[in-house]
Sequence to fold (391 residues):
Amino acid sequence: MKKNKHIIILVSIFTLLVLFEYMAPKKPDWTPSFKRYDKIPFGSYVMFDLLSDAFPGSKIEKNDSSLYLKFKDKSVSNTSYIIITQTFDPQRVSLESLLKFVEQGNKVFISAEMFGKKLCDTLNFNSTMLYAETLSPDSIPYQFKNNFLQPKTNYYFKGSWINYYFDDLDTANCKAIASIDSAFINFFSIKFGTGKLFIHNQPFAFTNYNLLKRNNAEYVFKALSYIDNPTIIWDDNYKPGQEASTPLRYILSQKALRAAWYTILGLAFVFLFFSSKRVQRVIPVVAPPENSSLEFAKTLGNLYMNSKNHKDIAKKKYNYWLDFLREEYYISIDNPDNLEAEKIAEKTGVKLDVIKKIIKQKKYIDEYKEIGQDSLLKFNDVIEQFHVFRK
Fold:
């Protein structure tokens, strides 16, 4: 009865904690996610939902594998690939697959704050922090270089506390598309093979919060207009924390699930602590099994010694030797009475005369109905010589 009482109290406490957490006011989660199914401020649920409006008539696909697995040994045409994340630093094989995809005449749009060194060195550009003393991070204006794309009012985005821009561009192959505060390039295109890469460094522009503010959706539609193709692929793989995603990591990343997880672990520990004291019994002493092999060997020895059947012992010794040859050296014994001594000596490494002695003494034993103890010991010595000299 007392045990049930404790369980009822623990379940009641757990239920109250769950209700309290559920009814507590929720604070906005400002974690940079950029995932298409996240409705938090910096998720991309709205952006993915608007892709069909941004590319009417185009086929929208999703990819949750690496670029290497997606485009390995494949020829793709008339396709655009969209990557929106905080840091884009693919592995070497994935980067090679991406550039091969562009060389085939396709387009890739990458929006990230930071880029891997391999990509920057390949395309000859650099991403640099923008230090603004008078402007807050969400009051820096963004403009297009093309006058036809310029709005009446500038675009402003809330996101990271640090803004980035591109410098050291290869002006022979790169074309600036948009800038920050009219001076710092933050969006450019570069030719690669017969295709183009579009590099952008304000991924927060494509998040739920910024798309629903001011005229920012207009900026996003204009930026994506450069990659219009019959097939559009949205990347789900290169997202913050996506590479190491596990069920437990997801639970710990969510405040409510994390609290429930720690509560369950705490209750389980308390239950085990108290129940172990009440349920634990005395562990009986179990004697180890006795080794009776020595007694068995003595019994067999006495049996043969009393019977004095030396010939039978010799025959068993010989048959055991033949079995040993089969198992250890894979020597086929088709006719035990006509063994090939040279073949056995060659495979075992034992001198030929030792093998011949074993065969000779076996024939000698077979000629007599009974043999003496001396003959048995002599035959056993020859067998032992074989085991000493074998390889």
In short: The radius of gyration is 41 Å. The mean pLDDT is 83. Residues 9 and 15 are 10 Å apart (CA to CA).
